[in-house]
Design brief:
358 residues; alpha/beta; Rossmann fold; 2 domains; five-stranded parallel β-sheet; 14 strands; 36% helix; elongated
């Protein structure tokens, strides 16, 4: 069975480009195109698509308004097509909160050489979206932080905050999973490094949004900053994030090397640096996402003495990355998303007294 895709965009050119990309794939087909959400409503009834691509900003009905109604009345996988602007990134972050599975940026029409890679990106995201678990949003108009889990108590062992690190990787569905994870972290938790597959221009908005929702400080990593307790550092969309050392301190490092597993930033790159420089001081966490990025690096972390957690299948939007890490033997514990922060901090509290200085 082919993946049935409905394209919703007010630009005839974008509709044409997306249609051409999708029709080149043997496992997917375009079942309809719509210039606005009003036309799309009828096409959804007629065509019963598996995945929608939805423009963020459109006439007649805003993309967010349409998404909100859709996720309440007929939940289905949606990929947002976003302009690479500050407003576009803010709207996209809100769309992910409302239930969109993922997003792509609008293609740069002037760069034909980049269209091949763009086609790979969007078709991979469509495949991931077609497998995603979509849950109805009973109250999607509520404020972003109103249903966040409670912040956990402060860590009991002072060595935990000063000597341990939490290393997180995620992809499809990861923006909401990371928000859930970080919103439970107390202000004195160990420093956290995060790689989320996300294009350049969006990670700063993502970090800013999280910073306003969490007890801890959240920022886009710039490289060279000392990793402090109560702080989370997110890989910038244009570069790999690595853990490094400067004397006795852990610091961030930014690297614009080639993509790994077709990703930059790559989870494997971050995890492998944690294995090298943190060893037993690290706790690894792999969250929802498609593909295998992170599995090899997490195994290196485990072999270097780290203790690793994976999000369970039931709570994942896409179970690919956790499944791959589990399959290679890299994971010590598997748990639902809501339980992961407690389990991570409990483990650290129990083992902080044996922290290893490397």
């Amino acid at each position: 069975m082919k993946i049935k895709v409905l394209i919703i965009d007010d630009s005839a050119l974008i509709r044409s480009i997306l249609s051409e990309i999708i029709r080149e794939e043997s496992d997917m087909e375009v079942v309809g195109v719509a210039p606005d959400p009003l036309v799309a409503r009828e096409l959804i009834k007629q065509c019963n698509p598996d995945v929608l691509t939805l423009d963020v900003e459109m006439p007649k009905m805003d993309g967010l308004d349409f998404l909100e109604k859709l996720m309440r009345l007929r939940p289905m996988p949606v990929i947002m097509v976003s302009s690479l602007t500050e407003r576009g990134s803010e709207i996209t972050m809100r769309a992910l909160e409302l239930g969109a599975v993922d997003f792509v940026t609008k293609p740069k029409l002037s760069i034909q050489s980049g269209m091949h890679e763009y086609a790979h990106v969007i078709t991979d995201k469509i495949r991931a979206a077609s497998k995603a678990k979509i849950r109805a949003r009973t109250n999607p108009t509520s404020s972003a932080g109103s249903h966040s889990p409670s912040v956990l108590p402060s860590v009991r062992n002072p060595l935990v905050s000063s000597e341990k690190l939490i290393i997180v990787g995620a992809s499809t569905g990861g923006t909401e999973a990371i928000k859930n994870f970080l919103s439970q972290m107390p202000s004195d938790c160990p420093g956290i490094l995060i790689t989320q597959h996300m294009p350049e221009g969006f990670t700063k908005s993502f970090a800013k949004r999280l910073d306003g929702l969490c007890k801890i400080s959240v920022s886009e990593a710039v490289g060279g900053e000392r990793i402090l307790p109560g702080h989370a550092y997110i890989a910038p969309g244009h570069s790999h994030l690595l853990l490094a050392r400067s004397g006795a301190n852990y610091v961030t490092e930014i690297n614009d090397g080639p993509p790994v597993n077709r990703h930059r930033p790559s989870v494997d790159v971050l995890f492998k640096s944690a294995a090298k420089y943190a060893g037993k001081n690290a706790v690894g966490v792999i969250l929802t996402g498609m593909g295998k990025d992170g599995a090899e690096g997490m195994l290196e972390m485990k072999n270097s003495g780290a203790y690793n957690f994976a999000q369970d299948e039931a709570s994942c939007v896409v179970f690919g990355m956790p499944r791959e890490a589990i399959a290679v033997g890299a994971v010590n514990e598997v748990a639902p998303l809501n339980d992961l922060p407690h389990k991570v901090l409990h483990y650290l509290d129990q083992h902080g007294s044996r922290a290893l200085r490397v």
